[in-house]
Amino acid sequence: MKLTVYSEIMDTIHSCGTRDCLRHIEEKYGISMKTLGSIYSQDYQRKMKKTHSKHYAPDVMETYYQRCVHGLQQGEKHVLLKLAAEVDLSAALLSRIVLEKHLANTQYQGNTPPRGLVTQQLRDTTLISDPLLASEINICTIADDNYGHLVDTVKHSIGFEYEFLLKHKVEEKGLEYLGEDQMRAKGYDKTPDIKLEVPIAVGGYVVNWIESKASFGDEESNKSYLKDQFWSYQNRFGPGMVIYWFGFIDELDVNRDKGILLMDHFPSDIVLMKPETV
User: pTM of the entire structure?
Assistant: First the structure.
């Protein structure tokens, strides 16, 4: 995807503010909903990180909690969903704030409850002492497309799905490789998804390892991956390839000569090295 197209998509998303515009973007640009969903989620999560401090100020958290308590006492429905929309905060994140304040006020004498306890009750709302609050939080968890343990489960499942697809493609080509678990058993802490036993060539570039990313590669995420993963792989194992299954900004593919090749699919035009002929 060209940077100009990505910028136009982001402008449309920002002007709309919700996922409702994604179908229109799909029709206009012919881009898959998986790709657009990934782009939207990345942008939304960045927005939440930028506004984190505003929502987590002690007085603001108390205000959110008191508004929830008051709404439930008045018999209101979807109190947390409405409040999340009003203050432009993820419903799942607002649920965590309110549950934390509830536990602090009802069980911990105003002190912050253990994070693990909050997480446990968010995952299993039957453990929450107030059934009305439990129902509100459960609704938020189901309604939130960007945060919460259900979203995390879906993301992990999709990640495993595409790692499995990558392994299937590699095995289909008859390539010998080591997986992450095998690499860790050898003492490596940072490992790509696939370490080829014998290098291949793709488009004239040598590939020793392959990393699967079930997401869209935008500038910020790719920069982070380069720093935390890709350069480490390149330093340890030589040049390799990253597959962003949901696409990437074309202008980011600038490190081929330095040993990192970006793709949005498993290439069909690979050249196999035959050691017995060397």
Answer: 0.89
